[in-house]
Amino acid sequence: MSVEAHEIIPLPSNLPEETIPEAARRRLSSPWASFVVIVITVLWTIPTLGLLVTSIRPKEQAQNSGWWTFFTDPTATLSNYSEVLTGGSVIPGGITPYFFNSIAIAIPATVFALVIACMAAYALAWIPFKGSTIIFFAIFALQVVPLQMALLPLLQMFNKGWSLGPIPIFPDLNKAGSAQSLFAGTYIPLWIAHTMFALPIAIFLLHNFIGQLPRELMEAARVDGASHFLIFRKLILPLSIPAIASFAIFEFLWVWNDLLVALTFAGGTPDVAPVTAYLANIKGTYGAQLHLITAGAFIAIVIPLIVFFSLQRFFVRGLLAGSVKG
Amino acid sequence: MSATMRRRGAALLVGGVAASMLLAACGGSSSSSESTAAASASPAGSVAAGCEAYASYGTFDGAKVSVFTSILPPEQQKFEDAWKQFESCTGIDIVYEGSDQFEAQLPTRIAGGNAPDIAFIPQPGLLAKLVQAGGPVAAPEGVVANVDKYWNSAWKGYGTVDGTFYAAPLGSNMKSFVWYSPKKFAEWGITVPTTWDEMFAASDKIAKAGVKPWCGGIESGGATGWPATDWLEQIVLRQSGGDVYDKWVNHEITFQSPEITKAMDTLAAWMKNPDYVNGGFGDVKTIATTAFQDAGGPILKGDCAMLQQASFYANFWENFKPGTTIAEDGDVFAFYLPAIDDAVAPNPVVGGGEFVTAFADRPEVAAAQTFLSSAEFATAKVALGTWVSANSGVPLDTYANPIDKLSAQYLTDPNGTFRFDASDLMPAAVGAGAEWKELTAWFAEDKSTADVLAAIDAAWPAS
User: Fold this and answer.
1) Domain spanning B177-349+422-459 has what CATH number?
2) For B72, which of A64, A269, A285 is closest by C-beta distance?
3) b or e along A228-249 (b: 16 or more beta carbons within 10 Å of the residue's beta carbon)?
4) Does this model's pTM top 0.80?
């Protein structure tokens, strides 16, 4: 987020020579600041450590004593992980189908949102047309609509269709003579819903980034006869990689961790439900499956970690350096 | 084809044209009402081996029925096993979906036009709310016949909203139990009490022997206080009878009424009596701070004699001491919390359960709903263990677990006074709010009975 943040906020002109990032860097590199950062990091990591320790403890111990007693009485087992992966008494199918559902939901939802948002952001920032500012502010304002408020209308639209008077805006997708929508048992409603919910913030962030790109670049490209599409593909996309990568991380994590939207639009059956639904159900009717919940949680964060670490280098690299002379 | 149309069609057949044809189509079906579903599907005749019992439901090729419930794995597997035969004989694929977000998700899905075909609703109050909003469809005739045949009439009342019967009960649990240690009872020379007075005579005797006879714990995280509401309900039903209980639930009499005040006084002389509680934990106040899961622990050690808790408490004993046997001659067992006055409420039982509600009137849904209310399904499910049905068509011998058997015995008693857990029937602001909070304060802070009851009444939402 910080990368966009200092792109967006205009610097106050009456500051001394030192810019905000430099000042921040100087303050943060003092030994006291380092100490505070380390303490906070450790404190924030302790619960996760507790989860990790619980996930390798045998069921009886995980149930009956705190995770810290592990250090005085270390008994470790991988059986929790094998039960979660291959299925056990609680959910016989294991985590695998849910895991692939999550991937099948999160990747397209992220890609759709980014493709649409990038194009919209470029159009709003660099194609002059009447009302572009109003449209941009309308999209920006849509962020105030809470997702939860839109769930029900959207669900009705998917299942019953939606029309404005006689004009059908969204067709009624119910198969004839059946209560089941064509969407039932597919990922499609989730992709649409996640994309819609991501667009306002995505367009806003990317618009601010793309809008800050040097005007000279676009003008030079126009003089050379480049079309809007060529500019978008050859200039905007490569230059926006830091913003796209950081938003991709947020959107992917957000979709990966979502339970509410998935349960509402797709339901909790293993053919469509994501890994969060598995985690919510693994505790079972009688509760008390701490050892399985923690093991499942650690398996579930593998993909987000991969995504984070593989995309992270993009937004620390400044792609703009040296792109425009003088 | 809607349920009413189908019924009209069947009636026409019976009344006007060819009763004999219908009889032929029914084949060996035991009850003619069950054949409504069959009448719309293929007639009996070419029934596969092992499917004779399911012939009356008809066959449906490739039909799917979705079931939405709050019951999670591993119980899910037992449900699926119990209806497997039904699925293969009728061709109906029952798709099970469990969610701990059930109560929030169900109304959303109904409003969004994405209702499940069948839902297992654990609160009659939620059923009534859904009916008012529109969604549930009236139970098909087969279900009505099964409920009339197999259940205590109080159960049918909880599945009925505004005079229309919607939902038959599924599983049930029994809350009117007192857990005790048969070995310690023998040591103290006490026999299992069968009347309210005997129970307190036994309590006095144990107290004289230097042991606090009762233990209790009402701490349960965000739901702290719920076990205390059960205690109050047990007394109200036993002391004042089913009618007063129903009026209390409907707020026709208030918490401050003489009946409820009297029940609170009785409860005070029992669970707030310093001579009786809190065995193994300390003084009366520790009831509020002891987790309900832990409350039974002292019974195994002999520091406490009795604990009033529901049948599901059977699952907790293993936590205190692995290998604890639950049997009449074992480490721990339960006796039925006796009636106070048989003339007021004979064999009173407070319990809970789920209700099978349909949201679609397709014939396969009606067939599945009818099957779920049948004695055959209940028996098959009971045989898979740790599950109780109030369906009197289940032979008591099917229950492997003695507690389940005892629960079923009282739940299926046709002369018993069954009432649903009152706090589950009251508005959430009271039944899952003020009543929990105030009864906790009653124990923890010794808040006066009058103040507690007034505060609960004040929380009742204005309708």
Assistant:
1) 3.40.190.10
2) A285
3) beebbeebbeebbebbbbbbbb
4) no
